[in-house]
Amino acid sequence: MTIPSVQMNDGRMIPQIGLGTWPLKDDDAPAVIVTAIEAGFRHIDTAFRYGNQKGVGQGIRDSGIDRAALFITTKLDGEHQGGDKAVAGLDDCLRQLGTEYVDLLLIHWPIPARGEFVSTWQTYERLQASGKVRSIGVSNFKPAHLEHLAAQTNVVPATNQIQLSPRITRTDHVAYDAAHGIVTVSWSPLGQGSDLLQDGVLAKIAARHDKTPAQIVLRWNIELGLVPIPKSANKQRIAENLDIFDFGLSAAEVAAISALDTGAEKRVDSDVDGH
Ligand SMILES: NC(=O)c1ccc[n+]([C@@H]2O[C@H](COP(=O)([O-])OP(=O)(O)OC[C@H]3O[C@@H](n4cnc5c(N)ncnc54)[C@H](OP(=O)(O)O)[C@@H]3O)[C@@H](O)[C@H]2O)c1
């Protein structure tokens, strides 16, 4: 099985599906990471806030995989915004993960009320130049935040990781990202345990392709050029989530899935500290 990659605006490639690791903790992360790497995952999403980077790093070492074969994303949250706080924050992440660099470092939330995401981004630009981070991006940024960033800084984020699923399609936001060369990464792509996967439209399309509703949702992400990061701690579902590259959806099927959009984000994810 070959997992496709998407090119980011800095020329680097990001594998088009990754393993989400929230809410795994240090104790359970190693076994899950080993299972995921053995199944074929090469892209792992973690964050300082998840409190699982030691476990994720342990799992990577336990798997025996060559570090260069992996794409590791981490994120720094509010306490690392402003001044040069991100420098120490990244060093902490690298220590916990037991690696010399991460492939992608994200600002976890803009937290606009603090007014510090621009200076934090400037620190990220320096961190990228230092080699401890290959690519830099953001998470939970709305177009207004990205506009503000573009007006004040020189480097466009490589990715924007946002809540996105068939019920929260955020088409305007995705179009903005695409028009500005930003890869959109979908968090909670499977609806985070909601009844999304019981939806009748998904069931019908799944039966047609002999796939599960989760696979249909993940394939819909691929068809749209998005990068989903489903979390699973279950060996069978981890394998299932990767088994989406041997079929395609028709334009009508993609449209039918996109029509499940409820037109509403479930939470104000730009202003609060979430996951
Ligand atoms: N940037 C941010 O602010 C932010 C916010 C939230 C999440 N994230 C990231 O996005 C990742 C994914 O989001 P998420 O964990 O919230 O939600 P999700 O991936 O949409 O859903 C995870 C849930 O779906 C279940 N599941 C996984 N595969 C399945 C399958 N094939 N069939 C049925 N159920 C399945 C999992 O259970 P099992 O484990 O039992 O399989 C888990 O309960 C997180 O882990 C985290 O890395 C980022």
Short description:
The chain is an alpha/beta fold and 275 residues long. It is built from ten helices and ten strands.
Task: Please render the helix and strand layout as text.
Layout: E1 5-7, E2 13-15, E3 19-20, H1 29-39, E4 43-45, H2 53-63, E5 71-76, H3 85-97, E6 102-107, H4 117-130, E7 133-139, H5 143-152, E8 159-163, H6 171-179, E9 183-187, H7 200-209, H8 213-223, E10 227-228, H9 235-242, H10 251-258
The protein binds NADP nicotinamide-adenine-dinucleotide phosphate.
CATH superfamily: NADP-dependent oxidoreductase domain
For the secondary structure, the number of strands is 10
Intertermini distance: 31 Å
- The CATH architecture term is Alpha-Beta Barrel
Model description:
By secondary structure, the protein is α/β, with parallel strands linked by helices. It has one domain (about 5-195, about 220-230): TIM Barrel (Alpha-Beta Barrel). About 40% of the residues lie in helices and about 15% in strands. The chain contains ten helices and ten strands. It has helices at about 30-40, 55-65, 85-95, 115-130, 145-150, 170-180, 200-210, 215-225, 235-240, 250-260; strands at about 5, 15, 20, 45, 70-75, 100-105, 135-140, 160-165, 185, 225-230. The chain has an eight-stranded parallel beta sheet. It has a two-stranded antiparallel sheet with strand order 1-2. Strand 5, helix 3 (about 85-95) and strand 6 form a beta-alpha-beta unit. Mean pLDDT is about 95; it is low at about 270-275. NADP nicotinamide-adenine-dinucleotide phosphate binds next to helix 9.
